[in-house]
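Hi R.,

As promised, here are both runs. First protein below:
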Amino acid sequence: MNLPVLSSDCGSCFGLCCVLLSFSRDAGFGVAKASGTACHHLDASDGCGIHATLREDGWPGCTVFECFGAGQQVSQVTYAGVSWRENDNLGEMAAVLSVMRQLHEMLILLSEVERRLPGAAAAVLHRVTALTSDPPEQLLTIDVDELREEVGGLLSIASMRLRSGWEGPDLARADLAGRDLRSSDLRGATLRGATLIAADLRGLDLTRADLLGADLRDADVRGAQLAEALFLTQPQANAVRGDATTELPAVLNRPRHWA
């Protein structure tokens, strides 16, 4: 099975996130802008003029965002290398990007299930992979909510299997913002959808903790063991405060700003 690339390659994209996404200062962007308006830092070759200094220049939101490779898939496969600069189709491209990003995120999560439990997600993984090659008109007819519900059910079953023998506390959707959790045993914990904004997780072992959809913005994970956490994604890793001693899953990139 040939999966599409599931991490962003900005050099192969038309700067879609810089044009099609709305920005707000509260979300860590230097200015507020509406969807469909190009960021003023985007140049004519679809490069970012401050890419190397985004955090220093007050744009941390850009360093947290991850399209999961949807940007280059839409640019180079869905639209065969024909940019929004050449066609008046920004509205359609925005809708397609939204669908594609969700498909790619599902592929990342399904790939993790398949890696940990071979055969458990193979059929759905194959089906979602095939959808990423569909033309725009077909992508826009996908019932994404129904598909997400199906994938979500599979992930729940996988989580229970993977946490068997590691059953930690059930903190799904709990408000743990700002909490000092260093004395907690969170191995095998259910932290799905939990709010962990600015929580202190330093030195914690989060092996087999289910972090699907957890809000980890500014959580302190210095020295934490996240290598075997379940369903941790790149945007979550980008949003936390880590250091050289933080252990991440091998499939994730270590954020540059941790240094």
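And here is the second one, sequence first, then its structure tokens:
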Amino acid sequence: MTTSNTSKQEASEGPSHCGSKPKKIAFGIAPLGFISIGIVPMGIISIGIVPMGVVSIGAVAMGVVNASIVGMGIFSAGITTMGLKVWSPAGPSVDQTINRESSLPSNNIYAYPSKEKAIQEAKKLGCIGVHKMGNLWMPCATHGVTQ
């Protein structure tokens, strides 16, 4: 019986998932590699459903640089993004920063460390309630458009 080089490599290196030694290129469910492609990929470059890595591309991305529907990281591009520099169809520019609150346009909604600050921002935006996003608070009861 013959086996492919990939099968021999996987057998010798073990699985490429969380808790194992990272491979150069990993595919699958929770693959761990320098380049990871799969359901919950983790690595330097991650492409998948919930990618986590330095560069993350997918549905819900978490990392330094993200391109996704929901991105969380330093540089994020997508529909619902959170980070120091963000781009979203709702936002005017990638140069908007979360720590320059006075320069923020009114149509961008950001997360805040306190519930009280989110309540103040909700009043400014004209929406009702706040909601939790991880350890932060966001104005408005839901993640929808406020207008």
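A quick note on the second one: Residues 17-95 form one domain. Let me know what you think.

Best,
J.
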